[in-house]
User: Fold this.
Amino acid sequence: MRGANDMDGVVGLTQCAIPPFKTYTYKFKVQDDQSGTFWYHAHSELQRMDGLYGGIIIHKPGNGESEKKLHTYDEDLILLVGDWYHRSAEEIQKYYVNYANFGNEPAPDSILMNGKGAFNCSQAVPSRPLECKYMQKPHLRMNGKRTRLRIINTGGLTGFTLSMSGHKMTVFQVDGGNSVLEAPPADSVGILYPGERIDVLVERSSDDETQEILEVRLDKEFRNFALTPIQHFPILPPRGRRDVSISSSNGYTPASPFNLAEASGPTNLAKSIPLKADQTFLLYTKIEILAVHGNSPLGVMNRSSWDQSNSNPLPLLAMDRSQWGKSFVPVIGPGTENWVDIILNNLDDKGHPFHLHGYSFYVLSTHKARTGSYDVYNPFDESKEPAGGPMNMINPIMKDTVFIPRMGYVVIRFKADNEGLRHLKKYLLTHYLSSGFFTVTSYGTKR
Assistant:
């Protein structure tokens, strides 16, 4: 979103919250070179976890070759997949910040696919009674011979790997129209973390008439033993073809997976990246549980944490910088031609997806430490080589959401040409509000 910082929708940063039963119209210009799969969601407290989200599809202008013709697909579908809690987000957050739970993230109870789900009522526990009834599992139906499937992880905690029996998927875009370099056809793609998007071309690889299955395999980091970690959803045959019975298949073993962490970008785009950034920001993120904070988990970034309890009702964008208090706000600029590196070191024993508003960025390096150790990267310490090896300056992928592995780091680079206050946030919702993972970066402004 360019030139409309006040339309960015972040409560406390760029706007006030929309009062109950009131409306607010967001107006902004979509750039001519902008297209792809996006989504919207609430930034007020934890409303996204309660279902306030949806997909946004931006098509290329009609004066050029259409993507449908370029990629030769005859159907365009969106698939929103994410974890789901049976309790409200407010209850979930109260559980998480309670000192008696030792900072353990509440594991999700179910999975939704395009807003629908089904839960095995026999797995409900007496301590958390449910009003539970049998529901038909949501399904996927593809009527084209070659389908463009826009997949968004709308969840609040868990990443997943998606696979389809009888079909091959080719990833060709990520995170809002950013191209992927020649990914091979695969029957399994992942891990897709909260906030990330992929566009895949789906083709049938078998004429077998037996039941086809869409499999969602949850990441093992956040486990709920009442939730089956491998979920199956039926793929119905195209309309006009004979239906087959929906079975409770045990799935299958994918033979050709595609690891999203290894995706590359086009080499021609990388030619515009300078060998060295004009400005570098070194960040350390961690969840701390300290007595001074009542042993409640608190997210910190460079030993500071965002405090949304500021008595001033105005967002930061409407205030003079002298009124911002002790908020951690790195400043980039002045000017709009600077290339910027952000090094995000994750000091936690679990990974975190981060999203930067207003920009797509090149991922120059991603590193996960070995079990039992941690590897941070400090570019200002020239005596140590980066544990993840040299930066990828040949074909780095461009994204707007990136997963930082446990005890590891990522290095991102972008051109800071979109002036304003931009929100760098963690996409795990239980960490987002009370845990204080809320960092703002000011671009190109002297105020």
